[in-house]
## 1
Amino acid sequence: MHDKTLTELAAGLQAGEFSSRELCQAALERIEHLDGELNSFITVTAEQALANADAADRAREAGDAGPLAGLPLALKDIFCTQGVRTSCGSKMLDDFVSPYDATVVEKLRQAGAVNLGKTNMDEFAMGSSNENSFYGPVKNPWDLSAVPGGSSGGSAAAVAAGLVPAALGTDTGGSIRQPAAFCGITGLKPTYGRVSRYGMVAYASSLDQGGPLARNAADCALLLETIAGQDVRDSTSVARVVPDYTADLDTSLSGLKIGLPKEYFGDGLDPEVETAVREAIKVYESLGAKVCEVSLPHTHLAIPAYYVIAPAEASSNLSRYDGVRFGHRCDDPTDLEDLYKRTRAEGFGEEVKRRILIGTHTLSEGFFDAYYLKAQQVRRLIRQDFLDAFDEVDVLMGPTAPTPAFDLGAQKDPVSMYLQDIYTIAVNLAGIPGISVPAGFAGNRPVGLQVLAPHFAEAQLLGVAHQFQQATDWHLKRPAFGKETA
Amino acid sequence: MMQWETVIGLEVHVQLATQSKIFSGASTAFGAEPNTQACAVDLGMPGVLPVLNENAVAMAVKFGLAVDADIPETSLFERKNYFYPDLPKGYQTSQMAQPIVGPGKVEITLDDGSTRSVRIHHAHLEEDAGKSLHEDYHGMTGIDLNRSGTPLLEIVSEPDMRSAKEAVAYIKALHAIVTYLGISDGNMAEGSMRCDVNVSVRPKGQAAFGTRAEIKNVNSFRFVEKAIAFEVERQVELIEDGGEVIQETRLFDPERDETRGMRTKEEANDYRYFPCPDLLPVTLDSAYVDHQRARMPELPSEKRHRFENQLGLSAYDAGVLASSRAMAEYFEAVKETCDDAKQAANWVQGELSANLNRESLEIGNSPVTAEQLGGLIRRVMDDTISGKAAKQVFQALWDGEADTADAIIEARGLKQVTDTDAIEGMIDQVIADSPVQVTQYREADETKRGKMIGYFVGQVMKASRGTANPQQVNSLLKQKLDDA
């Protein structure tokens, strides 16, 4: 059962082959058996999940089942869940129980989905390996000595290990796509503004976007259909009709114009990753697509611009963690300044502190123009690169990450870690959607193919990914880890 | 002795009268139990997002139109970052580079009736912080976040004022504008208008400004005057003693009528302003601005001109009556009831204002309603009662004796007797009772008679218990005494 997709499980529930309680019970047992080693969950809400599964079973009997009724899911621990700890992977919020539900959480609940728990992540979504979590690193189910990617590493590992059929993550610079690639699953970052950010703990507000991680593109479509749409509580969510993503998956690829950004195939790209990606593109050619090379000339500026804008926003977004109203507070503060200093020194991890310091610096008087304003100019150039490219081609393709999953502890300095996001980060700066689909292996570690489309072209993106998965079986491969466990 | 000139600029924070907060749906009502009017957004909970209150935008635009300001097509919210326990998010959402209201001007009227113009640099929207409560917590601080997120319009003037009186006139003019517009209750005691006063001095004739001190949170007209007076004296003394004014923030202590240094600007925060990524730029097209313009009420200056030109009031009366929305509305309601602008103006500025002042009441809390006063004036104008009796009736209305002037006139029997037969009867009786005085009168010449008639008038009025019409009594008496 743990191998099945959301779509298959939905059919099984509908046909009465098993109940939601049986399904969720099995998943919870699998988590119980396997997650000690994997560490993909921070909080498992078993009791609540089974109650919700029962409710879904009753609703189905009453003929009142929502589109995701009874399907188990997991949420990255960045989404606020009423009455449940929402830690964001930080000591700062270790004891924080959210008083409200994020909009996407509310939507999933209304659709009948059963949340099994909150998945591990890099603290405040800052990281590319999941090693920056207060709750310890997550392991990659394909190779327990490797990282699962980050920051949605817990969600990706949980799906890859068959603990849940799908999970939600967030992507600020690649945090859905890169772990999806490292864990051999499918992960979609929607267009900025497509999915409400209300109740998603903010890292970099102008870049953050929630999205699904699942076994295939069709399941991502099913989830996106549920979570997308304008939200009156998020002014940056966009008033556009949510298309029927699942209905549009079978569009033919004949005549599809694929652009390969030459900057995505340059120095630093692992040869095995490149081989896998080029093979995948051949598959597209065989399906009738036309391929050409394009250029995104400002790609080399994406990481520098991102590491000005994201930390700037983060330094402000994380100011609320001051020990006054919620979250960690230091013991026996002598005065206000002591309260602030020790609370934040104790509550935040190294990477978070580093980015707060960078952001505080770049926003400071005398540096603002040189850093923040310049980075915003670069951001516009990067966005224009994509718009220009999409005048020529329908979608862009390349590797999701320059290497397969690296070993735990392998990336010693922050900058080499930042370079992990070289192919994903510009996408957030431009606000366009991107998806990572399994496209082979480098050794025993999965490789992801990244597909990018114009703003709000998720339907096309999902269709392009789905067609590939109709022609290949990379997305059907499962790691040996947990294979013997029911 | 060196002649000094004072230079004053003001930052006035006006609390806008929206039902809900500027970025959340929580209520803005004053005086609730601490932290009962703060939702997840106001508390700065993880994951929450602001949504701009459209009413706050409309109110800011109306203010802009009232002061002839530019309304830029695009304005922007920015974050002003600093740590304070009553600032839940660690930043205040405000406007800096692109405020919603551009340069404008306000006409102020001084006590001598002269007017002058004060330029507005800009006005911007921002959210209020909560309140830190230092008493009653045994050395700890209590935080009340009810006020957190309350919409403020910060109105920043140019340094155009040259005296405390001008500064007060300016604040009064702003007070009148915002209350006329209905965008604020203008209640200074509840903090609906709070002023930061920038004061500097310079030798008369010098073009360059002196170094200024900013006095924070001066919350009444009187305190503004006192704070400026103290500050000017302090700065002048400092300079004349060879010292130098430093740029700093000072706090006014109303207990001692003095200002004290808080912190110097050098030590002040670097607020690290940057555009708030959670809010879209505010775009106001000309159709929107025109729509708001069409819904503007009559403003103080327009009302003043109408009172003067259409109602025929003196410039002074028109100025006083138009100075506040409450006063103007009261006056107009009185005028509506009695149909005489001059009488209405006299009563509102005379008897009513005297009583209000004596009991320190605002006109909005007057125990005599405009309709009651209008009804009273009508009875004076149609000769039902004398002017003297009218004062009695007014007092009775003030004391709440009855609901209408008519009821009081009836109950007290104050109706003037204008029936000639009745008055003649009383006159005949008085003449019959006063043979000596009658003889003396008749023997006196014309000039003396004029004085002596007062005795008879008094007697008749007394007999009528004040209800006889004095003019009538006078002329009838003359006829009877002279004709005999």
## 2
Amino acid sequence: MPEEQTVKTETKETEKKKKHKKAPAEVVWAVFRFLILFGLGFVIMYPLLYMISCSFRERADMNDPTVVWIPRHFTLSVMRDTIQAMDFGTTLLNTVLMNVGCSMVQVLSCAITGYGFARFRFRGSRLLFGLVILMILVPTQVIALPLYGQFRFFGIGSHTVNLIDTMWTMYLPAMTANGIRAGLMIFLFRQFFRGLPREIEDAAYIDGCGPFMTFVRVMAPNASAAFLTVFLFSLVWYWNDYYVSSTFFTNSKTVALMLQNLDTELKIRLFKDAKADISPREQIVWKEAGCLLSIAPVLAVYALLQKHFTEGIARSGITGM
Amino acid sequence: MKKKSVRLSYQRRKALYGFGFISLWLFGTIVFFLIPLVKSLWYSFSDVSIGVGSIDAKWVGLDKYSYVLTVDEKYLKLLRETLIETAWKTPLILIFSLFIAVILNQKFRGRALARAVFFLPVIIATGPVYKIISGDMSNTGSAGAGQFSTMFSTDMMGKLLEFLGIYGLSESMSGMISAVADNIFSIVWNAGIQILVFLAALQNIPSSAREAAQIEGATAWEYFWKITFPYVSPFILTNLIFTVIDSFTNPTNKVMERLIVMREDWKFGEASAMAWIYFAVVIAAIGLITLVINKFIYYETE
């Protein structure tokens, strides 16, 4: 270890004198750093590359030991089968309507709540914020059954409606900042808004702007980085969710759920037999194709937003400074 | 006098506005969180059956708890396994993510790409996709993690230590290192958000602190322990709690799987009791960790 230590030491020192000639230690550290990042990056990228490689090969290739990365029999049929089995068009539309819609609504409601906690002192505000922390701590699984009851018999007294299997089960909690991981999102927004200077609000108040308009007109535009970060989180959590949606929907088509049930679905559709015997190795081609299909939209969004996301993370105030 | 009363009413008004901002959430929390939470606690003391028009719960006292703790032999075993796994994985994830964050905070070519790659698990690791790929990794036997970990194989590490003249240590040490290598896939894949938080913390270190350290001639080692570490320390707690909660609320976690199985068997009371025992244990652990760690944290403000 002492060697690495001195390497680091000298790296830092030389970094400060950037214009000077590169010291050997710096080169060593650069190589070392590259190796670490490349190795670990490979661990991260491996499943993705594997996914792409598998989705375009015939299933026989899985048993061919000479095929590692580049398929011997290139084919689009696996992809086509999977799209068909997942009913991808409908599923995608459904997911966008439900999960993406919910994540947007939830970002807004959490921002409003977080702002309320960040800027206003009122009786019980500490206690109520404790409730937000409790929301972060309690897993959905603990409250899933009573929540099911809540939606099944939604209303007061004997005037109840059945909301199960309707989109309300997702949208109502999202609208009231109680959806998937809402506690964490409120927390992030509160931290962020606490970090903004009070002067801009005071200026708005003096100019006769009401508190809600101040929030909409003055605070929200300043919080775009936070909105973007939390939106990406929210999108991902809603997109990947299968637990909550499978609890409240008996028969719903969202990307995560379809992927969860892809196995049986494929066998029924492709081989007309739910118990068709395909070796687990060969099944991988369809599974990986399904994975690729289901993360492709999120990956596209990530690719578009990642620059803001990775460079702007400090400004988004996750650390609350 | 008049001025005072005006100020008071201004404060009252602000308090009202505050309630206005959180009212939507408050309503939702009561309906979608507090009531279900209390009900779930109630269910854990009851025989639960789904009847027509309502969910019926008949009070049976501590029966369900004693069933879960004494009759159900799987639960305690799974609970212990999950807790042990969380206990050794959490520090590893923290050290790993801090290390990566420090690297990603340095200036080098291709940094944007490296960051994009390292945050990628944030996008994927929570969903069923992760379940499938980590399953396939072990299924095909050609796991990327496996290939990678052969680089740090147990033997090589033991040999290296012996070569350096360190005996005796190698047994436990190499055991630990091989555990790390075997689990590098899950560690790397579960560290996305932690890296993000640490990186944000690192970027918030004021440049004045760095300049002062430079002028005083601090080495990188000293800089890390005397500047970086104190500034980052509050986020070690944040990340620690996040990591614990993340593994605890993960639907793929063994206790959670057991819970879901129980619910599918219509044993709602038992499932609730399991959830609450688990919850109590984890809350106790988090409370303890927070108490201990808070003593070592440096807060710039307050």
